[in-house]
């Protein structure tokens, strides 16, 4: 069975508690539980991790090599700034699907640029918590097509 890491970045621990008009009412715990439950229905193992710290996210990406088959990454605002995260993704050579709850292309111009996108398999944004479910489906299908475990 393939294993997927769902990795969330800064401030996403606040989901469901503030700005519901932008990010909805789903808490991070609910979101992670949904990912694990959806993983079971499509036959993949899902592990979750969230950190507000860039280095901890980089460590999690490094540790994913050999432990997981792919990563779903919402790097939060680091998506728009972090060359270090981009380099970490390139270095582990695991398929990464970039997700965002909001449609970053319909928001402020500084959110239009993503340093994750050029090194990601693809990007899903704008569907709220459903972005993660769509990303799981896409990554699981990619891993199945690629073959292996
Ligand atoms: O839409 C997304 O998922 C984002 O990655 C969320 C980031 C934002 O910086 C990106 O541009 C787009 C912000 C996460 C902040 O999450 C909060 C949730 C509730 C209350 C306050 C912040």
TrEMBL record:
Pfam families in the record: DHquinase_II
GO biological process: amino acid biosynthetic process; aromatic amino acid family biosynthetic process; chorismate biosynthetic process; quinate catabolic process
Uppermost EC category: lyase
EC number in record: 4.2.1.10
UniProt-annotated catalytic positions: 23, 100
Gene Ontology molecular function: any one: 3-dehydroquinate dehydratase activity
Pathway linked to the protein: Metabolic intermediate biosynthesis; chorismate biosynthesis; chorismate from D-erythrose 4-phosphate and phosphoenolpyruvate: step 3/7
Keyword Oxidoreductase set for record: no
UniProt cross-references to InterPro entries, sorted A to Z: DHquinase_II, DHquinase_II_CS, DHquinase_II_sf
Keywords (A to Z) from UniProt: Amino-acid biosynthesis, Aromatic amino acid biosynthesis, Lyase
Site features described as Transition state stabilizer, chain residue numbers: 18
UniProt: substrate binding residues: 74, 80, 87, 101-102, 111
Superkingdom classification of source: Bacteria
Catalysed reactions listed for this entry: 3-dehydroquinate = 3-dehydroshikimate + H2O
PANTHER family reported for this sequence: CATABOLIC 3-DEHYDROQUINASE
Physiological role: Catalyzes a trans-dehydration via an enolate intermediate.
Family: Belongs to the type-II 3-dehydroquinase family.
Assembly and oligomerization: Homododecamer.
HAMAP family: AroQ (MF_00169)
Name of the protein in its database record: 3-dehydroquinate dehydratase
Organism expressing this protein natively: Ruegeria intermedia
């Amino acid at each position: 069975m393939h294993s997927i890491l769902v990795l969330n970045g800064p401030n996403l621990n606040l989901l469901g508690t503030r700005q519901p008009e932008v990010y909805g009412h789903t808490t991070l715990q609910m979101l992670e539980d949904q990912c694990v439950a959806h993983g079971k229905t499509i036959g993949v193992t899902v592990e979750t991790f969230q950190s507000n710290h860039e280095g901890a996210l980089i460590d999690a990406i490094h540790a994913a090599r050999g432990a997981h088959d792919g990563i779903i990454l919402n790097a939060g605002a680091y998506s728009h700034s972090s060359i270090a995260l981009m380099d970490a993704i390139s270095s582990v050579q695991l398929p990464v699907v970039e997700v965002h709850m909001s449609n970053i292309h319909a928001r402020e111009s500084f959110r239009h640029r993503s340093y994750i996108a050029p090194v990601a398999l693809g990007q899903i944004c704008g569907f709220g918590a459903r972005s993660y479910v769509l990303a799981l489906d896409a990554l699981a299908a990619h891993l199945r097509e690629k073959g292996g475990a």
